[in-house]
Structure formats: structure tokens, C-alpha cells
Amino acid sequence: QQQVKQSPQSLIVQKGGISIINCAYENTAFDYFPWYQQFPGKGPALLIAIRPDVSEKKEGRFTISFNKSAKQFSLHIMDSQPGDSATYFCAATSSGYALNFGKGTSLLVTP
Amino acid sequence: KAGVTQTPRYLIKTRGQQVTLSCSPISGHRSVSWYQQTPGQGLQFLFEYFSETQRNKGNFPGRFSGRQFSNSRSEMNVSTLELGDSALYLCASSDGTTNTGELFFGEGSRLTVL
Which of A29, A104, B9, B47 is 20 to 30 A from B36 in CA distance terms? Predict the structure, then answer.
């Protein structure tokens, strides 16, 4: 049973555009929501993370928006670049170590 | 600082065999967790060890087991392999003392079961 639902499955964005990936969860015990980025042949790497007491967190071109009442959170990639082409996973956890991942979004940024 | 090292990187087994995968965490990290990654199910949590004790376990059958040694290195074992066990097995390490969820992943061991 997937505890974190992620959409879309794939996304194509033009260079300079905004990429938006959405996630939803049910378990209100989750208190930490990280996003991971994975390139082919590599393990996932932490991109940005948020706790539910904050509605938005920005790091460079990457922003997480968090809606606690709707149990939804999203990743926005501003000014998307071809180097951002990767698979993105949202996750949620209440333990810090047992991450519940979404199924991933394959992002392609075209030149 | 060396990253998370997983061995072997690739292996092929046949149904019914068993396999052992190894993970060396980042120096100083005491928590090691394991994940299975497949195209259909995505990333699924297997188990997590901290100071040689299993702290968390995912929803996998008992054929999947693990252990952690005093130097924090970890191994996971899958017995009686099934075709559906073909996957990328990822190990991740963290300091294990803060609830940040920041895991540092290795590049994985790709298991093919024939």
C-alpha cells in the first residue's frame, strides 16, 4: 500500500520553465518530508526537505510548498535546466530513517 | 570523505539460491538502512540498523534479513530467491541520532534472478 502518492509519473519541460511535482499522504504521523533526486546509475541524493510547521521552503531554484490541512506537498523547480533531468522522489517519515517514497517522477528538460 | 560503498555492484543468481549484499557506511555514521528499488514498486524500505540493532523493519517476507557489525558495516541476505526479487538494492547511511531523514545512498547492488 503506497503511503505517499506522487504525480505526474513523467514530465517534460522546456529549458527555463517551471517543473511542478505533487505528492499526497494520508498518515498524519509523518513529520518530515524530503525530496530526493536520482540520476541514472546513481543512488538518490537529498535535494530539499521540509517539516509540517513550515508552509514553504526555498533553496536556490528549488521550492517545497506544504499544505498540512490537505496533506499535500509539492516541489517547484524554477528556471529548469537540462542538468535537472533526473528522477525525483518525494518521501515522508515519522521515524527519520524509514522513508516512505512516492513512485517517482521522471523529469526531462529540453534545450 | 568516502561515500557509501556497496558490493557487489552487479550479480546474477538463479531461483532458489541465496545472496548476501554488503554495505559500508560513511565513516562515523551508525545507522544503515536498506531499500529495494524496482520499476513497478519504486523505492521500498526493507530495514534499518543502528548500533547493531534493528530499529525498523518494512513489510517484506522473512526471506529478507540483515545485520550490522560493530564497525557499522551492514549486510543483507535474501534466501530462496524468487524472480520478483530482481531489483536494485540500495543502502543508505546516516548518523542515526537526529530525526532529519537525511540519508546518504550508495549506488546500489543490482540483483538479477533467473
Answer: A29
